[in-house]
Amino acid sequence: MPSKAEIVELLAREFPHDQCVVEAVGDRSATVSHAIGPAQLRPGNTVSGPLLMAVADVALYVAILGTIGLVPLAVTTSLTINFLKRPASAYPIKGVCRLMKVGRVLVVGEVALYSSSSEDMIAHAVGTYSLPPTRPRKTE
Amino acid sequence: MPSKAEIVELLAREFPHDQCVVEAVGDRSATVSHAIGPAQLRPGNTVSGPLLMAVADVALYVAILGTIGLVPLAVTTSLTINFLKRPASAYPIKGVCRLMKVGRVLVVGEVALYSSSSEDMIAHAVGTYSLPPTRPRKTE
Amino acid sequence: MPSKAEIVELLAREFPHDQCVVEAVGDRSATVSHAIGPAQLRPGNTVSGPLLMAVADVALYVAILGTIGLVPLAVTTSLTINFLKRPASAYPIKGVCRLMKVGRVLVVGEVALYSSSSEDMIAHAVGTYSLPPTRPRKTE
Amino acid sequence: MPSKAEIVELLAREFPHDQCVVEAVGDRSATVSHAIGPAQLRPGNTVSGPLLMAVADVALYVAILGTIGLVPLAVTTSLTINFLKRPASAYPIKGVCRLMKVGRVLVVGEVALYSSSSEDMIAHAVGTYSLPPTRPRKTE
Asked: Any CB–CB contact under 8 A between A18 and chain D?
């Protein structure tokens, strides 16, 4: 399986504008974080919803790369996010992903999102990626 | 109900970094669009998923403002998006929102997302906003 | 494409306990209904949520069969339902499905659910089916 | 908080046709199970999707009752389910719920669904309940 450095390099090539930091990659899991600046804030000094969705999406992608290898053509097919708690604005957002199914065609995972100021989950996402059809078959 | 100009002004104050353009606002409906530049592109010359989520989120918010008035504290509580088709990169993204429920506490709407190059829906989102509790009660 | 009678026959074989009635089948669309008896009611004389989910699931399946042919191994991979309005108890539930994507591997559709007493949508579902891999390839 | 016996009694009154068994109730958590008979089976000897949705819905409701007290008017507002693995038909379905947010108006929880034959999750649901407005306010 690819190293964390190889995954970071692929992300930098694929998403040169993305500012997520890969904190950890494991088998069927990943942790990423994202610093918060003025562009990510909303009135009331909270973090924008789309930023949380973006962090969830990247966390899923990193966990998939760490589990099945460097598959640049995996694409998100669906994402459901529930916002649980208003995040504090001054702290980075952390996304902790756990894959629940790694099939031949579909991968399903969940992401718990935290504001680094607190242990409380601020949002929870479930996402599905589809894998490119040319990938060699693996037993599910 | 607020005019389109009043909604545009509120968005500019609340989301100074957002680049969505309000195309139309109606009762329980709204259309917004977003130009595509290098920062919104992904490898394969397609548009990033989080941008589509952001357009869906803004379309819902604009439809809510146009339906219940300028409520700056409405917040997204959940969003589910399904990606249907790879968008062409050179064209703006359009989000067409229709509210399905406007309750005292919860608003639910759907957003059809299009790449302006085509009539085909590229993504579909369903989102829920919760309204601030101090709003005067209306009959549902 | 199969006739409505052929689809009804397949459903009767596959789901002998299901009581959904196929009202109409079209290209990428279907309408089904379900009568309401004591077992489907909840306190407050409303219809149980799981029944609405079941009607949505069958409406999607019927629309898929009517669009791609009699594929008995299509399986639901996800379903998201939003409950919008309390249905009246005495009336059948109607589910109106429209497919939004018919791919080689995934089909995505939405279902509007109605209580036959009213024009108002009582629930809205979005579901995904995956198709068996042995199906001959079609251009998406 | 109510005892398990009080919750079982409320369920029996509210859902006399439901066959879920309450296995455990805790603070922000619950485990329920459902036996499988011919009416819950689908071709290929698997369990029907709507049954899994029903088990998820009941698991959420039991966790809510165990956490905030016997609130008969809590209603499901949304449910998202991902089907991960085909369950074995001969075994009961188990739903393990954990609440992620218990607010004044909305409760959000996730449910892991298992076939009792295996440790593997067969489906994962996230659901939202809304609480009746007359409930005394609690600090979130």
From this structure: no
